[in-house]
């Protein structure tokens, strides 16, 4: 494990095996604001960091009511060629 500190920012580098073995510990550190970099063969491949900007409550439904128009053609059946392409059969 390598620890980097810069003004109140703490970043830890760990191997994949170490991250597996001590995930709960690293999640606790992330909750405190630290960042954990997971490395494979000493190369960074992933970053565990605190989630930011999560809304305090869910967004209300219907914010775009009346602003979206769906044409009648949207509900008509697709032509055979296009339908087959969606199904992965056509070329």
Mind telling me the CATH class of the domain at 2-48?
A: Alpha Beta
The beta-strand count equals: 4
How far the N terminus sits from the C terminus, by CA atoms, comes to 51 Å
State the low-pLDDT regions, or none.
Answer: none
Q: What's the CATH architecture of the domain at 2-48? A: 3-Layer(aba) Sandwich
Oligomer: single chain
What percentage of the residues does DSSP assign to strands (E)?
25-35%
Structure explained in plain terms:
By secondary structure, the chain is of the alpha+beta class. It has a domain at 2-48: YefM-like fold (3-Layer(aba) Sandwich). The chain is built from three helices and four strands, in the order ββααββα. Strands 1-2-3-4 form a four-stranded mixed β-sheet. The longest helix is centred in the first third of the chain and has 9 residues, at 23-31.
